[in-house]
Amino acid sequence: MNPSSAATFYCRILDNLSDAVLLFDEALSLVYINMPGEILFAVSARQVLGSKAQQVFFFSDQGMEEDMHRGLASGASLTRRNVVLSLPLHPMTVNVIMTPVLDEGSPMLLVEVQQVDRHLRISMEEQLLAQQNAAKMLLRGLAHEIKNPLGGLRGAAQLLDQELPEQELREYTRIIIEESDRLQSLVDRMLAPNKPPHKSLLNIHRVLERVRQLVQVEAPSGVTVIRDYDPSIPGLLGDGDQLIQAILNIVRNAAQAVGTEGKIVIRTRIHRQVTIGYRRHALAAKIDVIDDGPGIKPELLNQIFYPMVTGRAEGTGLGLSIAQSLISQHGGLVECASKPGNTVFSIFLPLGEGA
């Protein structure tokens, strides 16, 4: 293998790693960055080659740069854990492994960057999916147990209604029938997400436009729904009706949170190298539903996707659970972050084969 083809071969290997790999010269100027590094730092190689380490990493403590110089001088590998990088788009916590190498006698520093936040996120996703599956099985068992006696209760109330001569007494049987119907509807909603999706290639923005129109009609005039779409997102395989239902549940929640006056933003972006559960996807569509309402109580934040958990007295606690189940059937995931004035529900849907 000649030197040129060998270099290309090794670059291809580095581009297929999950961690960022960067190479600095003796003056700590960047001479190489692999594709995961470009994705992690949201830059292009052409843009940052030749930049100093501080301009690439934006590390907040001077000790990081001192360690890089020390590694070059000593020839020994160094590891810095839980380093906070104050990147322009968002801060990031990483582990940094620095390994000195020689290139034709000149010392260089190979830096491997492992995103700690990503590993924590994968662990949280796995835990969330396991909890969702357990809750779904429990809920389905409970729903089936309720369904049979509920039918008998409604039938008996109908027979009694026909036998009672007095209108006043029949009002009570009608209440029983109406409440039975309400519970039946609730049970049906519990069972509905188990229906497998009928997938076809669809434009996610058509789904979002349908949701936006429905919510804008229902919401008070003081509530504004804003679009912030990325038109480059390709078509994805999905069940349009199920995706409308899932996203509608989330956007309706946002509308209820802002009350009579507020702003909801529906934003779409492409994300690369996204891990959902145990699977890694080269591309995923990320849909953010952002509202400026009062936020979700901290004690509820880790439980909001569980059935029957709600922060509203009149709520059933099923909307978000159903949304998570429907998105899960599409190989995706729903996450939430909230503080007063900024609640974000993020929906990840895989793009491409295997979605």
Query: Mind describing the biggest β-sheet?
Result: 5 strands, antiparallel
Number of domains: 2
- State the strand order across the main sheet: 2-1-5-4-3
Which fold name is given in CATH as the topology of the largest domain? Heat Shock Protein 90
Mean pLDDT: 81
Inertia-based shape? elongated
Keywords, separated by commas or semicolons:
Beta-Lactamase, 11 helices, about 350 residues, single chain, elongated, Heat Shock Protein 90, alpha+beta, 12 strands, 5-stranded antiparallel beta sheet, 5-stranded mixed beta sheet
Overview in brief:
This protein has helices spanning 3-15, 35-41, 45-48, 53-57, 63-74, 116-163, 167-191, 204-218, 240-258, 298-301, 319-329, and strands at residues 20-24, 30-33, 78-86, 91-103, 106-115, 200-202, 222-228, 236-238, 261-276, 279-291, 333-339, 342-350.
Task: Give a description of the structure.
The protein has 355 residues and is of the alpha+beta class. It has two domains: 3-115, PAS domain (Beta-Lactamase), CATH 3.30.450; 196-355, Histidine kinase-like ATPase, C-terminal domain (Heat Shock Protein 90), CATH 3.30.565.10. It has eleven helices and twelve strands. The protein has helices at residues 3-15, 35-41, 45-48, 53-57, 63-74, 116-163, 167-191, 204-218, 240-258, 298-301, 319-329; strands at residues 20-24, 30-33, 78-86, 91-103, 106-115, 200-202, 222-228, 236-238, 261-276, 279-291, 333-339, 342-350. The strands form three sheets. It has a five-stranded antiparallel beta sheet. The chain has a five-stranded mixed beta sheet with strand order 7-9-10-12-11. Strands 6-8 form a two-stranded antiparallel ribbon. A hairpin with a 5-residue loop joins β1 and β2. The mean pLDDT is 81.
